[in-house]
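Hey,

Quick one before I head out. I ran the complex with 4'-deoxy-4'-aminopyridoxal-5'-phosphate overnight. Inputs first:
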Amino acid sequence: MTRFFSSKYDRLVPYTPGEQPKDAEYVKLNTNESPFAPTEKVVAAAAREAARLHLYPAPEPKALCEKFALSVGVKPEQVIATNGSDEILNFAFAAFCDGSHPAVFPDITYGFYEVFANALCVPYETIPLRDDFTISVDDYTGVGKTVFIANPNAPTGIALPLSDIERIVASNPGNVVVIDEAYVDFGARSASSLVSKYDNLLVTQTFSKSRSMAGARLGFGIASEGLIADLNTLKYSTNPYNVNRMTQAAGAAVLDEPEVFAKNCGDIIKNREYLSSSLEGLGFTLTPSSANFVFAKHGAIGGERLYKELKARGVLVRHFGGERIKDFCRITVGSRRQIDVLLEKIKEIQEAIL
Ligand code: PMP
């Protein structure tokens, strides 16, 4: 840190993204990307826009927002497009949290929430998950703080029913409730159907997982027109051209192929069931996942050991160091071929060290 770096960041610990190694070809099951490449139509749409890269993109991607709003069943004024859903989450911490509206989120959840809060100097509190890693809904009803809940939660994959989400939103009318639906398409129910009923609900979604666009960076906020207007105030105060031309075109093209999206989600759900039952057969315990990853613990091999042994054999999974979850690894649900390689390597490790 130089002497120029503001002292307000003295204790800021940045988010550690999952490894994106260049040293070797890995079976990459560590960052919850889709194993399915974008379709030819999506690639062609992005390529057409590449020829116009000398021009700024539309600050308000109207066609994209209209298509997305239609697919979700809300008005275009109820959505905002962002540079990945990390950007909308960042805007939400900046817009809706302060000394009188501290943030609150579970102790085990998406690690970026804490980083956003610290980077923006926002006070926050964490509430422990129950021992089985479920969220105790009563902890959040009438909590009187700006609530951030990932549904399904990460890295556990456990989802809350929509009725529980509604209870939290309805009981906190004086605060915004942010429901981060990065993984909603793999088995949970979206709260986007509630945004016209509650003016304090912000739902965030991403095209990084179920829509095969992690590399393009596209996320959305869905909320009442008032909240979207607030979020736009922040966007126009930071980076008006936040979604680039190629991403806008690719996102619109993805929305033109809903059947591809539905098939890919269905395949991931099938693969998750295959991966889960295979891991259980190999002695793992898993949390019940509604996401495109599983959270798994082996009775005899520690989480960090498993991560390292798999990496040495060309398979990347994610290990988190937190006390309550250090025995687990988070494993992305990949293609059948990727899963079979993973299972093969786990058997190899078991034979070598047990
Ligand atoms: N929320 C959760 C729970 C996530 O796991 C992620 C992905 N790391 C994000 C949001 C952000 O994803 P993106 O910025 O790619 O949309």
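Residues 84-86, 110, 150, 154, 180, 182, 206, 208, 214, 219 surround 4'-deoxy-4'-aminopyridoxal-5'-phosphate (CB under 6 Å).

Talk tomorrow,
K.
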